[in-house]
C-alpha cells in the first residue's frame, strides 16, 4: 500500500526549513509496537525467532508500523496546512481548500487501512503464540512436573528402606547417593520450571503490550495531529 505524500510535498515547498513532527505520545506508542515486535524476534525469545511462521508476521508488523507513521505524518501536515490556510473566503481559495481536504482524506484512509492490517497481523501473532505455548512450552512444563513428582516419590520410597539396611554401610551409601542425585536433579528441575514459566509469561506480556499499544493508537485523538 502506497502512502500519500502530496501534503508533505506541498509543505516542503512552502515551509522548507520546518520539520514535520508527530505528538510525543503518538511517537511513544508507535515505538512501543516496534520494540515489542523486535523483542518477539530477538534471541531472548528463541521460540519465536526459530518459527518460520513468525518472520512474515513480524515483517508485516514492521511494514504496517512504517505506513501508519508516514500516513499519520501526512495527516498532520495536511491538517496543519488547512488550519494555517485560514478561512477559504477569497475567490479561488475554495479549490485550494478542496485539494488540501482531499490530502487529509487520503491520509486518513491510508492510516485506517494500515491499522486494520496491523490489527490482523497482531491477532495472527497472538493466535500462533497461544498455540505454540500450549504445544511446546506447556508440554515441557508438564514433563518437568511429572519428572519432579517421580523423583520426590522415589526419595520417599528410598528413605523407607533405611530400616531394612541397618549395618549395611555399602548399601546405605548407595541409597544415600541415589537420594542425593535425585535432590540435585530436583534443584535443576526447579530452575528449569522457573525458566519455562518466565518464558511463557514474557511471550504473553510482549503480545499484551503490543495489543495495548495498538489499541491506544487506534483510540488516539487525531485532532492532536497538528503542528503549532
List the helices and strands and how they pair.
Layout: H1 6-14, H2 24-40, H3 46-50, H4 54-85, H5 93-160, H6 169-218
Helix pairs in contact: 1-4, 2-4, 2-6, 4-5, 5-6
Name a few traits of the molecule.
228 residues, mainly alpha, 6 helices
Number of domains: 1
Helix content: over 70%
Shape: rod-shaped
Strand content: under 5%
Class per helix and strand makeup? mainly alpha
Q: Compute the CA-based radius of gyration.
A: 30 Å
**Could you list the spans in which at least 5 consecutive residues all have pLDDT below 50?**
none
* H/E series: HHHHHH
The tally of beta strands, per DSSP, is 0
Tell me the major beta sheet: none
Number of helices: 6
What's the N-to-C terminus distance? 29 Å
Summarize the structure.
Helices cover 79% and strands 0% of the residues.
Account of the protein in words:
23% of the residues are buried. The chain has one domain (6-224). The protein has 228 residues and is an all-alpha fold. The two termini are 29 Å apart. It is rod-shaped. 79% of the residues lie in helices and 0% in strands. It is built from 6 helices and no strands.
Amino acid at each position: 500500500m502506497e502512502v500519500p505524500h502530496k501534503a508533505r510535498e506541498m509543505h516542503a515547498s512552502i515551509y522548507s526549513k520546518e520539520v514535520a513532527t508527530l505528538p510525543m505520545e503518538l511517537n511513544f506508542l508507535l515505538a512501543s509496537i516496534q520494540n515489542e515486535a523486535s523483542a518477539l524476534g530477538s534471541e531472548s525469545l528463541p521460540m519465536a525467532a526459530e518459527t518460520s511462521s513468525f518472520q512474515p508476521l513480524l515483517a508485516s508488523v514492521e511494514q504496517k508500523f512504517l505506513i501508519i507513521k508516514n500516513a499519520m505524518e501526512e495527516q498532520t501536515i495536511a491538517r496543519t496546512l488547512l488550519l494555517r490556510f485560514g478561512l477559504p473566503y477569497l475567490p479561488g481559495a475554495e479549490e485550494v481548500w478542496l485539494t488540501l481536504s482531499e490530502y487529509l482524506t487520503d491520509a486518513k484512509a491510508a492510516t485506517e487501512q494500515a491499522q486494520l492490517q496491523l490489527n490482523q497481523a497482531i491477532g495472527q501473532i497472538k493466535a500462533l503464540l497461544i498455540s505454540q505455548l500450549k504445544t511446546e512450552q506447556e508440554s515441557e512444563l508438564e514433563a518437568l512436573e511429572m519428572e519432579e513428582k517421580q523423583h520426590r516419590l522415589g526419595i520417599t520410597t528410598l528413605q523407607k528402606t533405611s530400616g531394612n539396611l541397618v549395618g549395611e554401610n555399602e548399601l546405605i551409601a548407595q541409597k544415600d547417593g541415589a537420594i542425593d542425585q535425585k535432590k540435585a536433579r530436583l534443584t535443576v528441575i526447579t530452575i528449569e520450571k522457573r525458566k519455562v514459566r518466565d518464558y511463557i509469561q514474557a511471550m504473553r506480556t510482549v503480545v499484551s503490550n503490543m495489543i495495548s499499544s495498538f489499541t491506544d493508537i487506534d483510540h488516539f485523538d487525531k485532532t492532536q495531529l497538528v503542528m503549532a
